Automatic annotation (TrEMBL):
<comment type="similarity">
    <text>Belongs to the binding-protein-dependent transport system permease family.</text>
</comment>
<keyword id="KW-1003">Cell membrane</keyword>
<feature type="transmembrane region" description="Helical">
    <location>
        <begin position="240"/>
        <end position="261"/>
    </location>
</feature>
<keyword id="KW-0571">Peptide transport</keyword>
<protein>
    <submittedName>
        <fullName>ABC transporter permease</fullName>
    </submittedName>
</protein>
<dbReference type="GO" id="GO:0055085">
    <property type="term" value="P:transmembrane transport"/>
</dbReference>
<feature type="transmembrane region" description="Helical">
    <location>
        <begin position="12"/>
        <end position="30"/>
    </location>
</feature>
<dbReference type="GO" id="GO:0005886">
    <property type="term" value="C:plasma membrane"/>
</dbReference>
<keyword id="KW-0472">Membrane</keyword>
<dbReference type="InterPro" id="IPR035906">
    <property type="entry name" value="MetI-like_sf"/>
</dbReference>
<dbReference type="Pfam" id="PF00528">
    <property type="entry name" value="BPD_transp_1"/>
</dbReference>
<keyword id="KW-0653">Protein transport</keyword>
<dbReference type="GO" id="GO:0015031">
    <property type="term" value="P:protein transport"/>
</dbReference>
<keyword id="KW-1133">Transmembrane helix</keyword>
<feature type="transmembrane region" description="Helical">
    <location>
        <begin position="77"/>
        <end position="101"/>
    </location>
</feature>
<feature type="transmembrane region" description="Helical">
    <location>
        <begin position="122"/>
        <end position="145"/>
    </location>
</feature>
<keyword id="KW-0812">Transmembrane</keyword>
Amino acid sequence: MFVSSPLAAASATWLLFVLVLAFVVAPLVVDIANHQTIGMRFFAPFRFDKGFAFFLGADSLGRPIMLQLIVGARTSVLIAIFSVGISATIGYTIGLISGYFGGWVDNILLRIADIIHTVPSLLMALVVLFVLQPSILNLVIVLGITRIPVYLRTSRTQTMEVRERMFVEVAKAIGASDWRIITRDIAPLVFPTIRTLAMLEVAAVILSAASLTFLGIGLQRPDVDWGMMVSDGRAYLKSAWFVAVFPGIVIVLTALSANILSNWLRAVEDPAQSTLFFRARKKKRSSSQ
């Protein structure tokens, strides 16, 4: 099923490539990436005479853009993974409890989610990071908290549907505890939806983190992410377009790949969408024969 979808395979390959760069290559080149060489200021891209590191050119302080992208990948990926992990774990757990028990527990948890959801996540992050010192930890916490209602509502809705099924009623009839029913019977059925949503949210978090850094509220040097690179290069778009364009392309490719892969996972796990997804492939194959 995965091999039969070239677009999903290409997206997964790109995301795997970014992960390898972020966790394997980035620690090895961080010192070289931050080394400033004023004589190489705005060095033009697509040239090998100054080494492979400068193939994508240099920024306003003579730092190699290619190595800056690799180091920025580590920061962007870490922020995305931990932010999504925090929000998905908390929202998934609270949604299971809220959807299963209902009543006053459900009402209290939903009101808390409504309070968080009424304030735009980007605006809340701007306010919090303006008051606190911008750092990777604060950025992860803010983005993680603001995305909790998305998972809470999804998990709650799925749980309320699953708890009405016959096997849950049978489990209650034979004396199974609420904890066992939630963890053994309901949670495994809700998890695939949360996993697909988390893949989709990775793209949203990467874009949010890049937006905050672009606005000057996110990370500060020596930390670097793709949004900071776009922000640094926006003043030189006419004279040195590549400083902002290359990190912008990487942001778009990563967000698009995460979106495509999440849609593919949803199509595979949903019987209706899966049938339509692979029916087109079969027709194309039969027509070619």
